[in-house]
Amino acid sequence: MSKESTYIPRNGFAKWFDQRLPLPRMLHDNISAFPTPRNLNYWYTFGGILTFCLVTQILTGIVLAMHYTADAGLAFASVEHIMRNVNYGWLIRYIHAVGASMFFLAVYVHMFRGLYYGSYKAPREILWILGVIIYLLMVITAFMGYVLPWGQMSFWGATVITNLFSVIPVVGTTITEWLWGGFAVDNATLKRFFSLHYLMPFMIFGVVILHIWALHVTGNNNPVGISVKDKQDTVPFAPYYTVKDALSLVCFLILFVWFIFFNPNILGHTDNYIMADPLVTPAHIVPEWYLLPFYAILRAIPSKLGGVLVMGAAIAVLFIVPWLDTSKVRSATFRPLYKQFYWIFLVNCVALGYLGSQNPEGLFLVASRICTAYYFIHFLIVMPVLGLVEKPRPIPESITKAVLEKLEIKNSKEEAKA
Amino acid sequence: MSKKDTKEPSRRDFIFLATGAFAAAGAASVAWPIVDQMNPDATALALSKIEVDVSQIERGQSITVKWRGKPVFIRRRTDEEIQMASRVDVNSLPDGNARNNNLTADSSATDENRALDDDKEWLVMVGVCTHLGCVPKGQSLGDAKGDYGGWYCPCHGSHYDTAGRIRKGPAAKNLDIPVAEFVNDNVIRIG
Fold this sequence. Notes:
heterodimer, A: mainly alpha, two-stranded antiparallel sheet, globular, B: alpha+beta, three-stranded antiparallel beta sheet, 4 helices
């Protein structure tokens, strides 16, 4: 892939500007003219969708902060004030609340796409690790945002999660009280969570820039998982992928908007419309749907320290996935065994999500232990072993050849029909 | 080779290290206030003592009071509950420590060491599950009290017995007993 700039300043001013700050050149080379594999499918449009989600959350969040009051006595009422009195406040808040869920939906599609097509493999290890860091920052940001309405789920979610730190030997209690700014979750906790909830999206934005930078050093992976060999294998990002991303975004927005206007509260929990009460725990504390698999893992382990460590390991293991997968072939398309295990793993994750929403008793507890074990078996045993024993299918010579072969098959089928 | 190439530290090395050390100490002295501002402030520390009138509590009844932002369970136990708690072999408990701030740190978790008074009628505990901080059920008459007749935490299924000791579930410690004493026949001071 040629790294030479193709930017040509159009007029005297552009030339003058380019010699002082080559920003338009950078944007031209990295967005408009960026050589992108010609065979990307719609699963590859979720990077663009995620950027859209991040910008949406930041814009609606800035607006909500203009009307919200971060004070234990006033926060709950100020959210109702946004819903009832602020012009279009209900809309902006629902976009922000539903937006968080849509953000996670998109990030899970994006991550599972990476797992299917082997996008984490050399030379894209740093790209993948930056992605896991973004995901981790998203989880922390979403958790703190959920505390701000100061409902029952806000309060007790905050209590349960901050208490995870109390398992640290010796200094656990000190750290927990430091996080709270008191002896329980209270006003001081709410205020610092608000401050950090405002800060962290900008940290995510920073890591996203690094993520895109790393992407543009190695170039995109693609559905056949073989590297770009010559210019024939690529098309410029604009207009080919700007249009593809836009179409995908519109479809994504249909779902987004349906939630906002027809079912804005279905992804939340009704208990959060009851103001926080430090003396009464709701009968059934559950996190938002996107964290349920990790909640199931936490509760599957019959020891406090063990549960916290295993839950941490469930995210930590993602960092080393590039080295756990020993197969030289990137795309699951050419890996008959990995493809099957991939779908089993996906079903296992969904099952963990369901189990996280149920009481940890009887069969549910047994099932969540089995699923937790399988989660780690997939990464720590299946991935390394498959690379050694699996016989991959023949890999096409180049991206262009793979595309043309597919086209030929399609044409001959149509001819046969005619 | 000239003498300047020896490994002896020069004056420049000394200045370099001294400057670095000075900057590091300076950075640390600024970092500490920024870290410490998050610790419990003076208003949080000020709420550390309360007095509770317990003259209206009959045997078999409980009340919950707020102390340092946390619920404190005060229960006047029935004879049956006291017997259930006394019968247990301390060595069979998951947590053999009394977790009682009125006693020494190594006191064993006998019923005597958990109760507030000599008759073992009164039990005063921080009502915060030692697993992840939920408030266990069991204070109200209709509540689920768990397999051991005491308290049950609905969050992750920890069972506490009639002396507030952990018996089953993910929690590792008995419910914490705060510093407490009878000021007179009717009033308990907590903290």
